[in-house]
Design a protein that fits this description.
About 45% of the residues lie in helices and about 15% in strands.
Length: about 575
């Protein structure tokens, strides 16, 4: 029996038989061509691209109305890549300069693009390599007259094990026969992960070598709740996981029954539960899990992995699409948050010694005012299509907030003068991610309509720990007394001014922390949509008095270890958390 640990990308437990799916890039021939052969090579590329496009259109046609929003969008994006004249022209130009066959030129160009993306600090940007590879494989297979294995033809239940499942393969596969996915590559924000969650297929990604370890036919357990894969389990392990699988399935059924019910405590306190999204494809999952809206839409996805800055029109279309899809539920869109560990090719600082403390988020927007104004124009124009809320990130003090509000008002006036309609009553809020902001929220609360606590950064800045540094990761403590005290200060200051407080960091989606946050007075929890039902279950099971008592006890404790032990024991005994 072998146990592997990876990334818990889609929840659930599956026990089944391995189906090993190999779709490696074939060996690419390299040979010189003459000037006389250039036209024939250009035609070969055009024909291969056209056939690759026909493949994708066939997937769309065969799946028809069964395609969900995220699936359709991914396939549409692949068609756009195939039809991008600048990409195809660059391949042809390079071929003409080097006089090498088009397969070699395509493979080398794609490899260079993927290597560049793989070193990006932002996870979303790194994980877009799968889309580039997907499109390139389709073209190469047609250039080389090579057929791909068809996952649509699966006719028995299997656990799919592969190095890297291409998004179009995930869409096309016979989902009824795929019990789970275990994959070498991928992360939580990869399209494979997004699609697995959409299909409600358990998935563990980032296993690195599992596709090279197995040959197919092995017995396997995939635990998408904890990121664990067990190969050739013994009888006792099989029995234990069969029991856990049954309990999980019953648990999921019970949770989904809560979808239409409000997140209301036993004594009548109504709490708002919303979803975080990184890309528009995730909107459907937010609705499927009974969210009250979107509490964090990370708009920087439009700015990452592109050759040029998105235009006002491109941004407008992305924003209104999400607003319309949410059908009147509130959508909080965070303005551009790049810098630090999120690298944009068009907007980047040079030679920063410590980028996490450097030129990022609102600091970038206040320096690159033209970029900021373009985004604000797009946001305001889109506001007529739904209930938009605008949120500024990384505010450290009142001067930054004042300047951001001045620019927003200038853009509003510009649109009024041009007769462009927008919602004049858009709520405007800020993220509290910096201790200086948390400690001056009594001042900041007088100038905004809401706060949203970004715990990922607030924790690392409070305890002076780089959350990406493994050597000090043990010090990254959400239950540090200093962190909890800052959260309490933010909530009390906001309520004193009559404004609400949300939390959109990872802590908001942690069921273990939910009762403490409720007791501290948090009004809104925003998280990955899959976590909403569990947090809703907890909120509906307790009274505010119980939550306040637990939070009060915690605030008297002296160390994060003591708090963590007390809260975990309490929550496990009370709620039997998975």
């Amino acid at each position: 029996m072998t146990e592997l640990n990876g990334i818990a990308a889609s929840p659930g437990i599956a026990i089944g038989t391995v189906y090993l799916y190999r779709d490696d890039i074939p060996r690419i021939p390299r040979y010189r061509i003459s000037q006389d052969q250039l036209e024939a090579e250009r035609l070969r590329l055009d024909e291969a691209v056209a056939r690759a496009g026909s493949d994708i259109e066939a997937i769309q046609s065969e799946n028809g109305s069964d395609l969900e929003g995220d699936e359709r969008t991914i396939l549409d994006s692949h068609l756009l890549m195939l039809r991008d004249p600048s990409f195809l022209d660059s391949l042809k130009n390079r071929m003409e300069q080097e006089l090498l066959n088009i397969e070699w030129i395509l493979a080398r160009t794609v490899k260079e693009m993927m290597n560049k993306l793989a070193t990006a600090g932002d996870a979303y940007l790194r994980e877009r390599t799968s889309d580039i590879l997907d499109v390139a494989k389709r073209i190469l297979n047609h250039l080389l007259d090579r057929s791909r294995p068809e996952l649509a033809d699966l006719d028995e239940e299997v656990v799919l094990v592969t190095h890297d499942l291409m998004p179009s393969d995930a869409v096309a596969m016979n989902k009824r026969m795929v019990q789970a996915i275990a994959m070498d590559a991928g992360g939580k924000t990869s399209h494979t992960a997004i699609l697995a969650r959409s299909f409600e297929i358990p998935a563990v990604l980032g296993l690195e070598t599992i596709s090279r370890t197995l040959s197919g036919g092995e017995k396997i357990i995939v635990d998408g709740n904890h990121g664990v894969v067990i190969i050739d389990p013994d009888a006792a392990t099989l029995q234990r996981y069969a029991r856990l699988q049954g309990e999980w399935q019953e648990h999921e059924v019970q949770l989904m029954r809560l979808n239409a019910l409000p997140a209301e405590t036993a004594d009548g306190k109504l709490i708002s539960l919303k979803g975080n999204i990184e890309v528009p494809e995730e909107v459907e999952g937010v609705g499927n899990h009974g969210a009250d809206g979107i509490g964090l839409y990370r708009s920087e996805f439009l700015f990452l992995g592109t050759a040029q800055l998105p235009s006002e029109e491109q941004q407008y279309r992305a924003y209104y699409r999400v607003l319309e899809a949410m059908a009147g539920k509130p959508v909080t869109i965070r303005t551009l948050d790049v810098g630090g560990d999120k690298v944009s090719e068009q907007i980047r600082a040079r030679d920063e010694k410590n980028p996490i403390l450097g030129w990022r988020a609102i600091r970038v927007c206040l320096s690159e005012v033209a970029v900021f104004r373009t985004q604000l124009r797009a946001l305001l124009r889109a506001s007529v299509h739904g209930r938009l809320r605008i949120m500024f990130p990384m505010i450290s003090g009142v001067m930054e907030l004042t300047r951001a509000m001045e620019i927003l008002e200038e853009v509003r006036q510009e649109l009024r003068d041009q007769g462009v309609p927008f919602d004049e009553e858009i709520p405007v809020g800020i993220m509290i991610e910096v201790p200086s902001a948390a400690l001056t929220t009594d001042i900041l609360a007088k100038k905004v309509d809401f706060f949203s606590i970004g715990t990922n950064d607030l924790i690392q800045y409070t305890v002076a720990v780089d959350r990406g540094n493994e050597r000090v990761a043990y010090l990254y403590e959400p239950f540090h007394p200093g962190v909890l005290r800052l959260i309490k200060i933010v909530i009390d200051s906001a309520h004193a001014e009559g404004i609400s407080v949300a939390m959109c960091g990872e802590m908001a989606g942690d069921p273990v922390a939910s009762m403490v946050l409720l007791g501290l007075g948090l009004d809104e929890f925003s998280m990955s949509s899959a976590g909403i039902p569990e947090v809703k279950r907890i909120i509906r099971s307790v009274s505010m008095a119980e939550a306040e008592e637990l939070a009060g006890n915690v605030m008297e404790m002296r160390s994060s270890a003591e708090i963590d032990r007390e809260v975990r024991t309490y929550m496990q005994e009370r709620f039997s958390l998975f």
